Every structure is written in structure tokens, then in C-alpha cells.
Amino acid sequence: MQRSRRLGLLLACVATLTVAPQALAGEGDDALDKLLDKEADGRMFGGWGDRLTERPRSYPYVEHHGYFRFRADFFHNGHLGTVIPGDGNSGTSGIPAPLTENEYNNASDITTQVGTEDAKVISSANIRFRYQPTFHVSSALRIHATFDILDNLVMGSTPDFAGNSARYDVPLVAFAGAAAPPSSGVNGFSDSIRVKEAYGEWQPAFLLRVGRQASEWGLGILANGGRDVDSDFGDYTDRALLLFKLWGVYVSAAWDYVYSGAITDDPTQNFGQPKDLGGADDVNQYVLAFFQRPLSEKDKAERRAAVYERFEPAFDWGVYGVFRTQSFDLDNTAYGLWRKNGGVSTYDDLGLVPRDATAIIPDLWLRYEQRFDFSSGIKIELELAGILGSVDNVNFAAGASAPSSRDIQQFGGALEMQLNLDRLDIGLDAGFATGDDAEGFGILDRATLVNPDNSPNTKLTAFKFDRDYHTDLILFREVIGGVTNAVYIKPWIAYDLFEGPEDTLGFRLDLQYAQALEPLATPGNSSFLGFEADVRAYFYDTAAGFKLDVEMGFLLPGGAFNYRPVDNTNNRDASFAFTLQTRLTMQF
After folding, report:
1. Residue 256: pLDDT above 90?
2. 3-state SS of 480-494?
3. Nearest to 388 by CA among 367, 409, 369
4. N or C, which end of the chain is more exposed by having fewer CB within 10 Å?
5. What are residue 260's phi and psi, to 5 degrees?
């Protein structure tokens, strides 16, 4: 009787198993275990176990995830006090000075001069609604998408008036009574809805994923999908990916369509689907990764039991390799006109520029976790990456003389360590990114490719962390734009005033010291980047999906951000900066 009952149960389970979007082969066992657990307490099967009391899952169905985010921020002296109106070379921070400090508003020949040269405050608020549905077509077939609605919309930036949206009955913004939906090219640079991801998955005994999808790896210093609720960007790629498990090790192989070059998307083209006009100008990328870490729900449950119940050490690792190549590039001038203006340039106007660019990108990721008891443990995570390659010609225009070549040798790494002692957490984060001695500094720098004085910088050595890998509130995230040409160390401490199964209230203090590896690349030709202290108070209601963070950042900038013009006049020393930020998140 017991054997027949179990056989009937197994047959019922086969009809109801589903596969999680991120899981691989073996997930069926986990779903079966869940059904067996429900049968044991009588919630899913009747007391006699001879019939279902709940209907099995039917296909298709939609799984809903996402969040709504509200952020308000206040920056005092974010421009570090180094902006001189009319001096286009001044300003050593990525945060601009208030508009009253620009050249126009401080010109002596305008009738109404509004500049004061002492305004220091920039404040605003922005919102984002991210919706991430998964369409389960069958137990082995899924379609994923990510939509960002009003993505990082600065509140109040699209009022409905004549100057912004052709509301001629409201000629002045002072009398605007409504907000207009943002539309690229009309009243903003982005549309109201931005599609970030759209891809399909087929998962029999392996996983096949095709479409535009987030690219993520390790800590996220190289490839970061922007999954954190405080992220702004996200790395997305057009990719065909195959993932399978071999002798206990996951193997992932991917082909990325980084750039297809010229395509037939001219609005006057009426002959079938858009096409890539050959592979000579394509940027091709091939990815191969080997790793061990829990992916399926079954593996994750086993890991939780091993670490948090049996106090066994857990070790995860991964090796990630990328090979990228491009033979020719397009003359940007002609191609831009052809795409944007629908035929101003013609097919015969498109020129190819020899590029001969190659890059090999290795990355190593390691993670170790150990619980000493139910209330204490340690976690260590490390990522090391490099970019090695060359570009035979960095000129942008077709027909340019004297091709100029560059070698690429860039390295970076990040370390995160955390010690948990009941409600107290103590951590140490550190990292480095190689720099370049070319004039110019920061994520937005182009001087590492070609110097402004046309003196070639033949070796590119400035590694740049992904912009969504955050270590602070001001220095790297805002002033520089990301970790580059730097070494930093950041001890931190956090304490939860109370931590229950659903609610958490606590505080965290971060102290960061940073130094440039190549002082000549900084505006002030100094190695000291600065010291920053960040304080955060947080409240999380996990059951409701509600999170509230209030953060303050204090930056003492180093001599690296002093303004030192060539003629040594109008010198400005970088001064103290402060920020206050609030983040409210509703997740589902």
C-alpha cells in the first residue's frame, strides 16, 4: 500500500514540476522534495493521499518581480570648489557646480548677472520602476524581460509647458500644472519605457539562453548586471549562451554580438528584415567560463543546510575568459548621418577604417564562507581581472594617415571580507585598478587613448571598475566615476539594533582611504585621492518588501583634485564635500 501510494505521488509530481529560471538540470528533484514535504503535512494531498486537493500548475503563467525606487540626494560642494567660471579646464570633479556658476551667468557683459561664485548646493530626487516578468511557457521553456519605467527620471524635469512639450496654452514653466511623459528627442534623452532585457530560455538537460540579457560575473568589477536596487546602469549584451554541468563543474560558453556595424535599418529600406552588411566591421566576443557554486534551488538548499546547520565550510570558485576582436570599423561621420537622418549619406558613402583590435580578458573569482555557530561566521570574496590586447589603428576617420597603434595591459582586483558576530558585522574591503600616466583622469577620460597634445600614449594601462560596483557615496562613485588608477582600503562596521525573521533596523559606518597609482594622471599631480567617511541607517521589512536607507557621506579630497593650470595662475585647492541621500525601495 505504501509503495503504490508513493508511485501515485511520483506520477502526480511529474505533471506539476516546474524549473526555476536560473536553475539547471536536477531541479526536478528539488520540486519533488517540496511536494513530498507538502504531502507529509497534509496541505497538498488529502488525508488518505489518494487525490489532489489543489490543482496542478498549468501553463503558461507569468511570474512577477521588480521594484519601485525613490531616491533623494543633496550634495554640498560636490564640485570640490575647483570650478572657475569661463575656465573650461577647471573643475576636477564629475559633479558640476550649480548653474549659477557657469561662464554665461558670470559674464560681465550680460544685463542681469545671476552668478555669485559661491553657490555650492545641488539637490534633486529621482525614481525608477523596474518590472521583470518571467513568462513560463512550459516546464522547460521561459521568456524573460526587464522594463525600466521612468528610468532614473529626475522629478520635475519634464513639466508640461510650451518650451518642453508644445503646450502653447502654458507659455511659461512657472504656470505648468502637469508633468509630461519623457520622450527622447522631445523633452529628454530617454523614453518613458526602456527595455533592458528580452531573452528566451530552453532547459532540458542543459540551459540554452538567447537574446539581450544582463552580463554578470563574480563581485561585478568586470561584468555587472546592475541587479542591486541602487544601481544606475547595468551591463547588457546580445548573447547566445549554453550552460551545462560536467563532472560537478558548470561550463558556460557564449557568443556575444557586441557590435554588428552597418545594418539595413534605413527607413527607406523595404526589402524584408534588417540585415547586417557583412562581418568585416563586426565586434565579435567569445566567452568561456568554468565555475562551482549553487545554482538550482536544490543546490542552494543543500548549501544553506551545510553552512548554517552543520557549520561546514563552503568554497566557490570560477574562471571567466573573454576573447574580443574587430578587423575594421566604420567611419563614424558618414554612418551617423546615414542612420540618424534616413539617407543623408548613402550606402556608397560608408567607409571602413582598419582597426585590427584584439583583447583577451581573464577573470578569477573565489568565495569562502564558514559559520562558527548559529550567530557567528566569516565570508571572504575575491575577484581579479585583466585586459590584455592591442589596437593597430586608433584613428576614427577613413583615409587618415599614419595609423597609430596601442598596446593594452590593464589589471584590477577587489577583496571583500566580513566577520559576523551575532548582530555585529565587521568588514574590510580593498581593491586596486592600474592607472595610466597620460594626462586626464576618470571613467570619462579619453586621454588614455590619444593625448590632447597629439603625443601618442602607446600603452593603455588604466583599468576601470564597472560603474555599478560601488565602494562609497562621493569619491569613486561621483567625483571620478568609478575605481580607476587607484588603490583603496575600507574598513567598516555595522550593527543591527534588532534583527528578526522579517524586520531589521541598524547602522553602518565605512571609512575609506584611496591613493592614485599614477599621480601624473590626476589634475593635481598628486597621489592622495582622499579620505571618505560614510554613515548609513537602514530599516528593512522583508515580508512587505520595504527598504529605507538614509546615508551621509563626508569627503576630504586629496591633492590629486587640486586645480593646477599650466600657467600656474588661478590655482584652486579641492575642499571638503558632503552628501545626504535617502533611498526608499518597494520590492516584489
Report:
1. yes
2. HCCCECEEEEEEEEE
3. 409
4. N
5. -100, -5
